[in-house]
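Notebook entry, structure prediction.
Reason for the run: the old model in the group folder had no record of what sequence produced it. Starting over properly, with the input documented here first.
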Amino acid sequence: MSKMIFGPTFAEMQDPTKIPSDIRQKALAAKVTDPLNPINLYNITWKNAQGRVNYLVLPKELTGIKANIIVLYGKEFPTGSHKVGPTYSIAMEKQLAGEIKPGRDTLVWPSTGNFGIGGAWVGPRLGYDSLVLLPEMMSQERFDKITSYGAKYIKTVGCESNVKEIYDKSKELAATDPNNKILNQFQEFGNYRFHYAVTGNSIIEAVKELAERGNGNGRVAAFVSAMGSSGTIAAGDRLKQQFYESKTIGLEPIQCPTMYNNGYGSHDIQGIGDKHVTWVHNVLNMDAIICIDDLECKKGLQLLTEETGMRALEKRFGIAREVLEPLSQVFGISGICNVLGAIKTAKYFELGKHENIVTVATDGIDRYPSVLQELTKMHGQMDEVEAAIRTVSIFHKAKLDWIKEATMDVKKSWLNLKYYTWVEQQGKTVDELNAQRNSEFWLAHQEKISDIDKQILANR
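New structure, fully documented this time:
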């Protein structure tokens, strides 16, 4: 039996200065020189080597709105995406509970992208064989990263929204071998806890720092997040506790508007819009749902990441090259979706110049060259005129359609949608579902964080 490895606590991921200094320095060095070394588990944080949160404030010349849009970017995490955080926290909680053991169990990671990549990295670093389940239509870059981290994958049928097929394969694998342990981001509350504690508190620090530099009021008017596993949106629960006025806004693809109108369909905003309401999503705490077009997301990504688009933004809209260069690296398709959702949020709720809207960029452009190549084949080469048109039509003139505010009746309907996936298909009970109607259910999951941290420290 392999020796168990225990990494950082939630408190250390939120504030790396709490990590013993020798471990922190080794981890920072290994990030560059030895990225597959398990010491890199201590680099699972939103913060850089200087202890500052990794974020950007988008230029108003791009967004066309008065309010600040602040983007925390995940590309500096060990796998290039913040989804490695939930994969670690879920695995760590399972290991503490004695449900998984290295050398005995194979960790199975159901995913539509970055969670699977995170599992492909975390599992082997903790000493486990890892197997990722991923829809066949995901970008080739995703499959390449999985194998580069020492994991295997199985391609399931369909695209981003074909999650049931992933669940079906998970059941098959679990039935075939009891040592195939399914770590399901859509139902495991380690996902919720990571984003509530680590992402939520990192956002609080970011807006405070901005205010100290004379930018914004130090508060969060809205947190905007597209929903895949609906882990990231849990940061909104923490923000509501800190800022009474903060709104939590969820995003879906227009092509698959499940929560918006019980809709369904296929889309290409990889990482979100999985055609069901996840078990870990506190839907009663969400204030609105906004739907975003997948083609606009891809065209917006191409605008920010290709030289022609950057040149147009510099020459025609006055955005400095030193501002554009970082923007060209930190976004993927879902990140652009989040930005467009933030712009719509600012317009719809009429937010002013001192107010902050916060969102995240899950991953970077490294996962999407093949997607943009296909976009060019289908729609032609983007020239500077087309880039200018995209800036105005997609960003500046973002339309206020596909927006639904959440009355209590709407929130209950969102919760009721969980029944069809989780009770009918995945073995949850009606009593378990009804428990989620009470805020004490969510508070209890938040309160487990300190106990989990104590257990990690005791085992390290």
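Summary: The chain has three domains: 8-43, 55-79+192-405, 84-184.
The old model has been moved to the deprecated folder.
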